[in-house]
Specification:
The structure is a homodimer of 327-residue chains.
Chain A (H helix, E strand, L loop, with lengths): L6 E4 H7 L2 H16 L3 E2 L4 E6 L2 E11 L4 E10 L10 E9 L5 E6 L3 H18 L7 E4 L3 H10 L7 E5 L3 H13 L3 E4 L3 H7 L2 E4 L18 E4 L13 H4 L1 E6 L2 H7 L1 H7 L8 E3 H6 L11 E5 L4 H15 L9
Parallel strand pairs in A: 1-7, 8-9, 8-11, 9-10, 11-12, 12-15, 13-14, 13-15
Antiparallel strand pairs in A: 2-4, 3-4, 4-5, 5-6, 6-7
Helix pairs in contact in A: 2-3, 2-11, 3-4, 3-11, 8-9
Chain lengths: 327, 327
Amino acid sequence: MVSDRPEVVTLDRVHALIKPREVIEAVREGLIAHARGLVQSPMPGLLTFEDPLGDCHIKFGHVRGEPFYLVKIASSGYRNERLGMSVNDGVVVVLSAETGRVQTILLDEGWLTAWRTAAAGALAAQALSPPELGTIGVFGAGLQARLQLEWLKEVVSCRCVVAWARRPDKLAELCQYLEKMGFDARPVSNPADVVLQSQLLVTATVAKSPLFSSQHLQPGTHITAVGADSPGKQELDPECFARAACIATDDHMQCLAFGEFGIAVRAGVVTSSDDTSLGSILAGDVTLSRLPSDITIADLTGVAAQDAAIASYVTRKLGTLEPVNLN
Amino acid sequence: MVSDRPEVVTLDRVHALIKPREVIEAVREGLIAHARGLVQSPMPGLLTFEDPLGDCHIKFGHVRGEPFYLVKIASSGYRNERLGMSVNDGVVVVLSAETGRVQTILLDEGWLTAWRTAAAGALAAQALSPPELGTIGVFGAGLQARLQLEWLKEVVSCRCVVAWARRPDKLAELCQYLEKMGFDARPVSNPADVVLQSQLLVTATVAKSPLFSSQHLQPGTHITAVGADSPGKQELDPECFARAACIATDDHMQCLAFGEFGIAVRAGVVTSSDDTSLGSILAGDVTLSRLPSDITIADLTGVAAQDAAIASYVTRKLGTLEPVNLN
């Protein structure tokens, strides 16, 4: 019996080979494959912990024709910071679709999830933001808020940011970081000020209630919401959806089940058929004609196709995958 | 930031510390916790592959109060044998329930699943078999059939086996193996002969249709069915359930969804409330008064509580788990 042990790859090796622009393109292909029904990705698993607060998202999927599939474990412990530990951890297991053998174990510590989410945010902004982008508004000061802006740099030229976060110290840190990254970043203490000044809004918080009132939303604004990824989370005022000319979802069923879109549907603001698949927009299978005053929303809950895309990218770069010839 | 890398444990280390009798007791506690609603174990994930044939079961769960939880990946490639590879592979990831940190990665190659299934089979047989056990009948000649008998040795004194399997060469191999293990093992070419001669039947095949007719079933027989673990698989004639005085299921919903019990319910032979939880029987929360002529069935689909139990057992033995004090 052949008994190859899987290759275990540490985060530093994974980190060294990540090129944002390439990952964005890989995730674009993943989202398109997802929209076209080419991905086997059952409803993801979720475990939740109350005391201390934490959760674990388990996603698994296979893009038809790919030589492998993946199971991704992304865990969070929301009180870890006081222990001097990062909030997120995780493992991505890559298996051969031909034999089921475990090929590669990526000790990604949650970073593949963070990167593929940033990539999806960049793609949504590229596809849906107004062409004249004067200011980007960001909610949240965590890793994902930072990454969203870092990766947006790959696809938009705007470098002006206004930011709001619950904790002023974290907000100041974020702005300092963004300044170093080449942004002109300004913290504001009133969420409405972010909304009033921005044409692109990115929400990346762990909020459980709306961050701002839809009344402040200006014509021509695009919103990318990445925070709500499980039941109970909410960043947007459902009324934002009533004003949206286009609602893009990464996955119709997931966004209905635990995304912002589902909250708006349950609030009776829109109907469950009012969304368009982000992948279809990225593929050009659906044509958008955006008027300058149109408000658009992208609701991103994260799909296994993105994970498969980035795991595929990493695995190919590592050269660890040995296709098996069954003939 | 603390960034402990998880410990990666190879199969040989895991194998060396497995003591069947101890694992059986751990799995007993797991099944009892499951029956008492103390386990957070959402519906498991399943990916299936048509060409070549394969699947991947993803189970995840947390036993309330335990310092960790687990995500288990168990994959199969059904044509692997011609490549000189084993059919099963897998990884068990153990994470801290307090921080979400990945603690231990067990490269178990599917063995934890095999062992905990054998443990559940032993427990079902111990609880439900008639006290006078003259002959054990086994269907199937794969790893699980072999393990079911090996682990039954821990709980029953009967050493007389009749066996049937689709492939005569594999059947002969099984019987040789069982002889070495101290059994008196006889291969038969007609499935009915197994049924007619045995008081305990264990079905451990990948069958998709009944292995034998219920007409051959003798009064006083107990059946443990472990083969059906996903939609489409079936080992038992649904009519067996009509004759059963007790139907034990490891998980009511799973057995309804893809176990033998669900097939019998859909066939109209029994109703969906006709089962009893195996864990409740093991706990003594339900009292069985078995008549000598009673036919009983245990339908085992595998639950995360079993995986948590064996992962807990292994992890404690390895001493890799460092509980974090949050106070």
